[in-house]
């Protein structure tokens, strides 16, 4: 099943709201007024500064990337160094992540969140979502059009209600049944992890909400993507993903932030 906006009545526990923020709120620009520059302080700029201060990536997470052509020949293109900032204490092997000042779980202090993030939390409440206290705020930053996330279930201690807001680029978030052995390698890019996967098209500035079965009984991830060259995509090859089938292609931008917010029950 695919679609830009999934109705929560037909699909309990899974919903997408397009244009949750507007273009002005997303932009990362400077306005020039005479000889002065006025910082517009929109979301992309704010998240970029948070990643600069608190972003980290464990060595084990630096995915080695290869480009494969239609004939099966591969070309090494280095490691992906995606970063995240979170108030959740994390460690991997002998590495310890940076803990952002807003904290985690019952100790999360919303007053310490970035200004625009606080506005987004407030907007969710104003839209009528029945939510308890915020328990997790994680900011992910990915570049090079490499947005891949291995299928996973978020930590159970985060909370039962998860929201993912994507900016600067759209993405296809794929839900795959938990406990099912899926495909690997190139087959994933051609057919997805399983035949029962659910592709959710999340256009730029849209927010996905999932709870219940979608939160606990399905894993979610993003495929690595395919580099395509076609006149309608411009002069240069573009990394794309598909949603539902190879007939429906989503071109990616170079960079993407995703803001993950998780709440307790009301």
Please provide a written account of the structure:
- This is Fe2OG dioxygenase domain-containing protein.
- Residues 72-95 are annotated as: Disordered.
- InterPro entries: AlkB-like_sf (IPR037151), ALKBH4 (IPR032857).
- Residues 72-85 have a biased composition (Polar residues).
- The chain is α+β, with helices and mostly antiparallel strands.
- The protein has a single domain (14-57, 70-263), classed as Jelly Rolls (Sandwich), CATH 2.60.120.590.
- Helices cover 15% and strands 36% of the residues.
- The chain has five helices and 19 strands.
- It has helices spanning 23-26, 43-54, 115-126, 186-191, 212-216; strands spanning 14-17, 30-33, 36-39, 64-68, 74-79, 83-86, 91-92, 95-96, 134-142, 149-152, 161-167, 171-177, 198-202, 207-210, 218-222, 226-228, 238-243, 245-251, 256-263.
- The chain has a six-stranded antiparallel sheet. It has a four-stranded antiparallel sheet with strand order 10-15-12-13.
- A hairpin with a 1-residue loop joins β17 (238-243) and β18 (245-251).
- The longest helix has 12 residues, at 43-54.
- Mean pLDDT is 85; it is low at 1-11 and 30-39.
How would you summarize what this structure contains?
This protein has 266 residues and is α+β, with helices and mostly antiparallel strands.
Radius of gyration: 19 Å
N-to-C SSE string, H for helix and E for strand: EHEEHEEEEEHEEEEHEEHEEEEE
Q: Based on the coordinates given, report the CATH architecture.
A: Sandwich
Task: Give the number of domains.
Answer: 1
Query: What is the CA-CA span between the terminal residues?
Result: 30 Å
Strand order of the largest sheet: 1-14-11-19-9-6
What's the helix count? 5
Count of distinct strands = 19
The level of helicity is: 10-25%
Low-pLDDT residue intervals, each spanning 5 or more residues: 1-11, 30-39
CATH homologous superfamily designation: Alpha-ketoglutarate-dependent dioxygenase AlkB-like
Please give the largest β-sheet.
6 strands, antiparallel
What structural class do you assign from the helix and strand content? alpha+beta
Strand content: 35-45%
At CATH level 3, the topology is: Jelly Rolls
**What is the CATH class name?**
Mainly Beta
Q: Mean pLDDT across all residues, rounded?
A: 85
Net shape: globular
Region (Disordered): 72-95
InterPro entries: AlkB-like_sf, ALKBH4
Protein name: Fe2OG dioxygenase domain-containing protein
Biased composition (Polar residues): 72-85
């Amino acid at each position: 099943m695919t679609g830009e906006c999934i109705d929560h009545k037909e699909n309990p526990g899974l919903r997408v709201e397009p244009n949750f923020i507007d273009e002005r709120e997303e932009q990362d620009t400077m306005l020039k007024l005479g000889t002065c520059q006025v910082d517009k302080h929109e979301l992309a700029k704010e998240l970029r500064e948070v990643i600069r201060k608190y972003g980290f990536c464990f060595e084990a997470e630096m995915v080695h990337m290869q480009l494969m052509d239609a004939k099966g020949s591969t070309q090494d293109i280095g490691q992906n160094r995606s970063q995240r900032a979170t108030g959740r204490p994390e460690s991997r092997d002998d590495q310890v992540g940076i803990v952002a000042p807003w904290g985690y779980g019952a100790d999360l202090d919303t007053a310490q969140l970035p200004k625009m993030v606080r506005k987004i939390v407030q907007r969710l409440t104003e839209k009528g979502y029945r939510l308890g206290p915020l328990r997790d705020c994680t900011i992910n930053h990915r570049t090079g059009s490499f947005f891949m996330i291995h299928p996973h279930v978020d930590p159970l201690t985060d909370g039962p209600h998860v929201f993912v807001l994507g900016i600067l680029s759209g993405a296809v978030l794929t839900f795959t049944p938990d406990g099912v052995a899926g495909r690997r390698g190139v087959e994933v890019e051609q057919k997805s992890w399983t035949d029962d996967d659910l592709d959710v098209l999340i256009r730029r500035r849209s927010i996905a909400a999932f709870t219940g079965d979608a939160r606990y009984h399905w894993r979610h991830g993003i495929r690595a993507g395919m580099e395509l060259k076609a006149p309608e995509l411009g002069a240069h090859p573009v990394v794309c993903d598909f949603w539902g089938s190879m007939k429906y292609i989503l071109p990616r931008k170079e960079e993407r932030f995703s803001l993950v917010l998780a709440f307790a029950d009301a």
